[in-house]
Write a structure and sequence with these properties.
Largest sheet: 4 strands, antiparallel
Number of strands: 4
Strand content: 25-35%
Strand order of the largest sheet: 1-2-3-4
Radius of gyration: 19 Å
Helix content: 25-40%
Shape: globular
Number of helices: 4
Order of helices and strands: HHHHEEEE
């Protein structure tokens, strides 16, 4: 019994150390990719007012991640820069019929008619058999925002490859 507990404890420590190293490595990679100043925005708290102002962007994100446009042109027309988060895939052998996604708001900031939002998402496409076609997991993304005609528009997206 003691031997089993020791083995479990050792395995738990190994898993913890591995996960800690991996997350530090990935964080360092993201800091290098985004640049330290931009990446540090993730640690800035979002005011309640800014979060309320940014709600329409989150609703648009939900719509984009859930959409199944017939063409890239249709996706771009409907979602602008967010077209890349739709379920349009131009490979006729990999047409998704269902999807699952999870979007987590990290932070955001509004400065007049400009702003940004940081999100973390997981997005998976499935074929008609329920088999996974493509997917992204735990991706941090930063969207640059501009208010046009009273509505927020995503003007640029940035996420590490």
């Amino acid at each position: 019994m003691k031997k089993t507990i020791c083995i479990i404890a050792v395995l738990a420590v190994i898993v913890f150390v591995f996960c800690s190293c991996r997350s530090d490595y990935y964080k360092d990679y993201e800091v290098q990719y985004f640049g330290e100043k931009t990446y540090n925005e993730i640690n800035e708290p979002c005011s309640a007012e800014d979060k309320a102002e940014l709600k329409p962007v989150l609703k648009l994100a939900e719509k984009a991640f859930s959409a199944f446009p017939k063409s890239e042109k249709e996706a771009e027309k409907q979602f602008g820069e967010l077209y890349q988060y739709t379920n349009y895939i131009d490979d006729p052998n990999e047409i998704p019929v269902t999807e699952k996604h999870d979007i987590h708001f990290i932070t955001g900031k509004v400065n007049g008619d400009n702003g940004y939002i940081w999100l973390n998402y997981t997005h998976i496409n499935y074929d008609e058999k329920g088999e996974e076609l493509r997917g992204d997991s735990q991706i941090n993304t930063r969207w640059t925002l501009k208010k046009k005609n009273g509505e927020w528009t995503v003007t640029a997206t940035l996420e590490s490859p």
